[in-house]
Structures are given as structure tokens and as C-alpha cells.
Amino acid sequence: MLYVVKDGKVIHSDKIVVGLLRYATPVFSADMQSIVFNPEWTVPPTIVRENLLPNLRGGGWFGGGSMLSEHGLKVKYNGRIVDAGSVNWSSVNMANIAFVQAPGPTNVLGKLKFVYPNKHMVYMHDTIKRGLFKPTMRAEGHNCIRMEKPSQLAEILLAEDKGWDTKKVQDLLDKGYDSAVNLDHPIPVHTTYFTAVADADGKVTSFADVYALDSKLAPIVAGKAVASAAYRRRQCGHADGFWCRRQGRSRRRKTWRGRSKDCSEISAPALHERAHPSDHGGLSVFRKLSLPLPCRRCSRAPKPLSPSRPAATSPA
After folding, report:
1. Which of 106, 165, 171, 199 lies at a 20 to 30 A Cα distance from 225?
2. Does 298 participate in catalysis according to the annotation?
């Protein structure tokens, strides 16, 4: 679910669709900076790598070009539109290539995109697949968040930020063409993951554990000590969250593309403190999704610490 919080009170909620487990929507916080009306869609690298490129390299114009035509995709080379048939897909430097879909009734982003720049390249947007919101558990496709009523969110945010009325928003929805409206006051967007939520009256509502994290989160909720990221790394032996290689007693630290990371970017208590809307005041967009955990490959949960080891305090 998506919640808009103002002065500690929820003023709007909406159904959302998150990514499948394979393309899990990440946990992070970022500031929303703009809203795009009738956006152009640039195909993300994962879809290019897994779907488009194999067809283009394997099927030539008949196999790959037909896929581009079917979805209304144009090819850009260094920002310039080129004929897909003129590109040697076996040798071209894909860093110079982009696939774009023009705004329109078949555009996968629908009529609105909410941009809050982040390293995950995740944003919220409308969708032309309205049936996605009917199931109780809504996980489909890749990791960007799809919204059931994006126009209502746009009206609320632009009324708060710029004093716009509904008519002005509707005019842009009707006439805008990849039109970006920059917010005067960036709005914090927080992504979290809860499978049980208590309302103001204490009534608890449970949700599907789409990313199968409950068993790993349970020790934290129960009040057990949580190891620091450095101590978790010493336990599982993995400097990053991508590679997992253990042979016998050997515990070798691995890096991914030269980058060394802790298994978890932030401890659970710190995440809860940072993500709580009341910490920011004013208007916030608060999304309940997922919680960072230990190494993504080995999924080794932190072991209980001895009294001499420092531990983070579990959330109340």
C-alpha cells in the first residue's frame, strides 16, 4: 500500500504493485523531485539484457525488430533516433544504445511518473494493466512501483507544493507530452516492508509475505540482539551482498565488480527510525515494501552475540 502522511496523519492511500521476488522492490529513502505527465519510457537495463538483446542478436530484423515494432519502441544511438535494422547488434556498444517508447495509450508507464532519483533507478508510475490491482497479493514484473490512482496523488502533491487545482492537473494529463513538473519542495519517499500493521485503534492487519522475509525478521521483532554489519561479515565471510562462495572452512571475502559492501546497508532499528513519517514532518509518501537483511546470496542470519559484543537495540 501507498500512504501519504501530513503532520502525522494519513491523508491518502492507494493500492500498489511491487516487483516479483526475482526483481524485488528495494528498501530505501529518497526525495521526490518531479512529476512527469504522459512520460516517455526508457527501457531499463534489466529488460534490455534479458528480453530485447537476445531477440535482436538471435533473430535479426524478423525476430528482434518485430518485437520493437510490436511494443512501439524506437532505438536511440547517442541520443539520436536510428533504424534498428542498421545496427549490428552483435558488436554494438550497448552503452550508447537506448530503447524508448513514446507517450500514448500503449505506454507502459501510463500517464504519470513520480521521480525521486536513487541508485536503484526505481520510481512510481501509472500502468495500462488495470487488472494488476484486483488480487490481494500484488507482485508482478520488475521493481518499479505501479499505482492504481496516480492522478489523485498528483493532485494532492501539486496542491500542497504549488497550490494547483484539479483542473490544472487534468489539463496536463490531457495535453502534456513527457512534461516534467519540478517540485518546489522535495517530498520524502520512504519504502519499508511490513506484513502486520496496527492502525490508530490498535487493530492489526496482516499482509502476504511476498519476499519471504518474516522468518528472518522474527528474531528482531522478538527483541533479540542484532549484530553490526561488520560482525555479520565476519560470521558469513561476504563483504558484499552478491557473491556467496564457501568451501569447507574457508571464508574468503569477495567483491562484486570491484566494489566491497557490507551484507546489509543499514540495521533494522535504524531503518525503522529513519523511515517513520513523523520524523520528517509535513508531507511524506510512505510505502510499505521490504526490509534489508543479511547477505542476499547466503541469507545467513546474524548469530546471537556474546555480552562482550556490541549490538544494536531492537525496535520497540
Report:
1. 199
2. no
Going from N- to C-terminal start, the domains of the chain cover: 2-38+109-192, 42-101
* Per-residue confidence in pLDDT tens, the chain, 316 aa: 999 999 999 999 999 999 999 999 999 999 999 999 999 999 999 999 998 988 888 754 434 567 888 889 999 999 999 999 899 998 999 999 999 999 999 999 999 999 999 999 999 999 999 999 999 889 999 999 999 999 999 999 999 999 999 999 999 999 999 999 999 999 999 999 888 888 889 999 988 888 988 888 778 777 765 554 544 554 555 444 433 333 333 344 444 344 434 333 333 333 333 333 433 445 666 555 433 344 545 555 444 434 344 434 333 3
Task: Give me 245's grid cell.
Answer: 562462495
User: Can 272 be counted among the known catalytic residues?
Assistant: no
Q: Are 111 and 184 in contact (CB under 8 A)?
A: no
Nearest Cα residue to 120 out of 30, 32, 210, 238: 30
Please give the grid coordinates belonging to residue 128. Answer: 495500462
Q: Which residues share a beta bridge with 3?
A: 13, 286
How far the first Cα of the chain sits from its last, in Å, is 23
Q: How far apart are CA 270 and CA 216, in angstroms?
A: 17
Where helices occur in 163-310 by DSSP H, the ranges are 166-175, 214-221, 229-236, 268-275
Q: Give the CATH class of 2-38+109-192.
A: mainly beta
Q: Write down the catalytic residue from 125, 236, 238, 295.
A: 125
* Helices 214-221, 268-275: crossing angle, 10 deg rounding: 90
